[in-house]
């Protein structure tokens, strides 16, 4: 992740882990650290998240994940919970600019954001069921909070990706732009940055507070093993 400040008061967080911004425990804990740091900076008034790659984020690296032992599984579940909880709870406005696939865990950068911008070539999906795993509590509660019941059912239970126009229809994203999504995200960030920050943080907490607290309480419990008897074979099948 690269952190820059393209305009006064605007922080830009660019994902840049080739080839597909795959998620690891270390990267997710890095996300938490950055989200916490920006949350505490008074001069930061809005945050833009984008990708330097053609893929926004493909979630886990399945080649590695199919070989996870119990400790690896616990570490990635903890990372997914901690990282996206911190982003979802960030009191600053978060705007995402998506110009590629945001799949599985990668979609939670989008769902955690307050305004979501995409290009026509972007795609979105929650493929967990197809790779033989359920959802850690953090991502699950974020999805439940930010998707309507129909979109939640279609994305989570079917596990198939959708295109940008369908994602906008289902409320997964807010707008589609033909030009640079980052340029548009920076414009939106400037608009959000003009909102009184204390009021914004309070209103965002009113909207998301119950879900934030529910995730925080659930994370204190020791999770069950993430993989089941189907998982490794399902992951291997997805790689064919």
From TrEMBL:
<keyword id="KW-0443">Lipid metabolism</keyword>
<keyword id="KW-0456">Lyase</keyword>
<dbReference type="GO" id="GO:0006635">
    <property type="term" value="P:fatty acid beta-oxidation"/>
</dbReference>
<dbReference type="InterPro" id="IPR029045">
    <property type="entry name" value="ClpP/crotonase-like_dom_sf"/>
</dbReference>
<protein>
    <submittedName>
        <fullName>Enoyl-CoA hydratase/isomerase family protein</fullName>
    </submittedName>
</protein>
<dbReference type="InterPro" id="IPR001753">
    <property type="entry name" value="Enoyl-CoA_hydra/iso"/>
</dbReference>
<dbReference type="GO" id="GO:0016829">
    <property type="term" value="F:lyase activity"/>
</dbReference>
<dbReference type="Pfam" id="PF00378">
    <property type="entry name" value="ECH_1"/>
</dbReference>
